[in-house]
């Protein structure tokens, strides 16, 4: 069991490394389909295979690029650690529950990185996990579901009429509604809104704040606690 758990953690960490790589290549306007290995953003040296090892690569370099000795961003390392932990915690659960959630987590993390970098969300990435989630857990009518539907309609109208709220944020909420119960989605929204408001009012002042990362972490936290 220890060996299997180790394999699952390493597999999740590799998925996290891939997610971060795809997001960074997109943010840097680079092709996603290439055989070229990643490069150091500071010195532009192509990374060696051992430098690309999830979690171990940054440890072997002691947090600094092997070539230019500039400090390495730990964003990828955190994503690798989180993805490895999520797969480790969920792989033994019922497939109908764990598979849609894990795929949803991956898509949410990718869109969190792109939203944080360029306020960009990619609805096409949300389709497959949403469909799998609906297939595994069809929606049933309830008061929380009705409240959520009304809220989504209002938010889409707000996004259409103003630039204060992006339609991509609402698309993310639709994905969450396909993956979890309406009550959990509403609680995630409340938690994410409170955290975003706290960050927004604290110095330094910000004119615009990416909301997808807040929704992602709130959703992951509540689904895991649930």
Please provide a brief summary of the model.
65% of the residues lie in helices and 0% in strands. It has 226 residues and is mainly alpha-helical.
Description:
With 226 residues, this protein is mostly helical. The protein contains nine helices and no strands. It has helices at residues 2-27, 56-60, 75-90, 95-118, 127-136, 143-161, 167-179, 182-201, 212-225. Helix 1 runs parallel beside helix 4. The chain is globular and about 55 Å long. It starts with a helix and ends with a helix.
What is the terminal separation in angstroms?
Answer: 24 Å
Q: What characteristic shape results from the CA principal axes?
A: globular
Give the oligomeric state of the chains in this entry, treating copies of one chain as homo and distinct chains as hetero. single chain
Q: List low-pLDDT spans.
A: none
Count of helix runs: 9
Largest sheet features: none
Mean pLDDT: 88
Radius of gyration: 19 Å
Number of strands: 0
What structural class results from the helix and strand content? Answer: mainly alpha
Order of helices and strands, N to C?
HHHHHHHHH
Beta-strand portion reads: under 5%
Task: Provide the helix percentage.
Answer: 55-70%
